[in-house]
């Protein structure tokens, strides 16, 4: 494994055309035939190699977040965080860590529109000296559901109908109306924040509560916020529709274009910090990803800046093959009991092994190149490392030369322990939670036009729902959050011709 920046990005190209085994190609225009007008010969390795490699050019697209754009840059920590975390890259103000960020829409296919109404993915890979930390968040501080068991069903309703292969408004609202914990995220999604003007003009959030752990093993609960320095800009319904047809790649183009001309986007990074022991008595379940912590309770503390200043030199190698996971962590950053997060810890590396193969961490864009990877994982498809050469491939071991040994003395590498009690079971979420309070507060926080646009965007989308019972159920949720909101949606749908 290399210990320097990914080499594929800097390798100069030879200008001599060769086959994949390095043989100079004499003729790239004419296949080898038996006689001038005869059939093609099997011995034409160049043709067979070229066609068969082409046949395999596509890897599976991401099952969600398939359409995206990415860029390189760095994160500079601007505060001394040693009281909160022992993560080496967060110790000293001024320390810069290289990063790769990828932004995405969620539901659409790889060729879908950048202007779709959808949350936006906000994923950042921090190449730290202690390994890679991936912050795999969204441009929204909350999510639709809070149990990973629901995720595949939820996503199916956002994709295409199994029979018609069309987007299905009935499935979309049927699921959401039967999973009312989604209302908070629905409120954000149907505000104009559901159609950001570009990736540069949106914020990013860890959404989940994560942990920071200091050198004494003391943990704090934190939420990460990335506030755009470009200012928030969103499309209205009409602008998004116009952009959809005129330039479905608008956000991809905007990000690449800005960086190409030296207009580097940046985000001010802040934390909300909570003492671990405060969680039990807080008004909201801090492990419920459908809830925020109001800033009045836990104000933002600025800790750094993320800047993107280099475009990928190859989209497939760097953006398509990038593999982010909430389980890629470093000492000093830890997981919490958030059930959704726990599900994600498994799901991402699992999909990477399917999408990119078991050695996906060896791909240059994914290599933890500032740390030295040393373990007993060997062989496997597409292993293009030195495969740890002749060193022993087991541990514990006592031979010379020695292989990698576990470092028991480094307590920082340990997970923090959590006290548990109770019996195993399938528990519904904290019954005292009120899923309608935060969405109602958000509705009331919106100013006149923001509220008008929210109602308009909902009405435009729900007009496509055929089953009136689904509409009524969802209106019930809006009304429960705020009676005026429910009434306005109902009136809007009636004006649009729905018989409710
Ligand atoms: C991508 C699963 C919830 C943010 C993905 C991918 C899967 C997945 C399988 C494709 C990854 C790849 O092919 O590389 C899940 C599951 C979830 C969940 C099972 C819930 C149990 C969330 C939440 C967020 C989120 C709550 C944000 C807070 C993202 C982002 C990507 C992604 C940003 C794209 C990463 C990239 O740019 O490559 N998710 N997800 N996901 N997910 Fe989730």
TrEMBL record:
Reaction(s) the record says it catalyses: 2 H2O2 = O2 + 2 H2O
Positions annotated as active site in the UniProt record: 65, 138
Function: Catalyzes the degradation of hydrogen peroxide (H(2)O(2)) generated by peroxisomal oxidases to water and oxygen, thereby protecting cells from the toxic effects of hydrogen peroxide.
UniProt protein name: Catalase
Organism domain of life: Eukaryota
Domain spans labelled Catalase core: 18-403
Keywords: Heme, Hydrogen peroxide, Iron, Metal-binding, Oxidoreductase, Peroxidase
Family: Belongs to the catalase family.
Catalytic EC class: oxidoreductase
UniProt record, GO biological process: hydrogen peroxide catabolic process; response to hydrogen peroxide
This enzyme's EC code(s): 1.11.1.6
Pfam families listed in its UniProt record: Catalase, Catalase-rel
